[in-house]
Amino acid sequence: MSVSCNDVYSFTKPVRDEIALIAGLGVEGDVHAGVTVKHRGRVAADPTQPNLRQVHLIHAELHDEVRMEGYEVPAGGLGENVTTSGLDLLALPCGTILRFGRPPTAWATSQAVGVAGNGSAPGSWGAPSAAPAVSAAPAVSVVGGENAVGTEGVAGAAAVVAAAADAVLDESAAVAVAALVARIEAEPLDQPFLDPRPAVVITGLRNPCQQINGYRSGLLKLVLGRDADGNLVRKAGVMGVVLRGGPVRPGDPIDVELPAPPYLALDRV
Asked: Residue 247: helix, strand or coil by DSSP?
């Protein structure tokens, strides 16, 4: 629906005609782009942490939801880089790949129906027909170095994995890094027959904070909720790492590629 970026720290991001994704860094010219964390609170806590929040995506349906409660929030108003429509971002499992734009004809006509690595078909320009069943994440360990990413050297998204190897990760970050490793291993970036479109690996949920009330008083309570079991539900969008770079524009379709099961529910990163 819309794309945004800002080269200075601010809660909101101005809408752009186009943004450019850079593999392993984020959105070109955006203040939050980088291999290690750039959000000021995260930098203050531990600047060595890998940047699992390179791209922020919010579903436009959230804007519709809060509008019904009297809050007019425009695209980019909550600081997202990409505003989507018709895609249940919050239901996607950790490690989902979102590819932007229509596939080049020469590439698309040469592909089988299945997606390498999980044998399931990609989404048809939007959300899966049903949300995948997700489970709590198991304990995981992250091994650093070149062997962790299965590629020659460290480049692009693999640089984030290398940064993670030098940091002390909490459980949700470790799960996200492991999911990123699996995606890099399944898609060596030097293989020309793979999908060349700009792509983001979803790593987790945005954790809404008091800054949202600073933007619109009382809005924070509307982007936090509880499920039927009383568990906290974070609604303020998802975060991701850029797997493949390239331009993203309003009107671009989005293909969804789920990771191999079992699917792991998104947690805050």
From this structure: strand
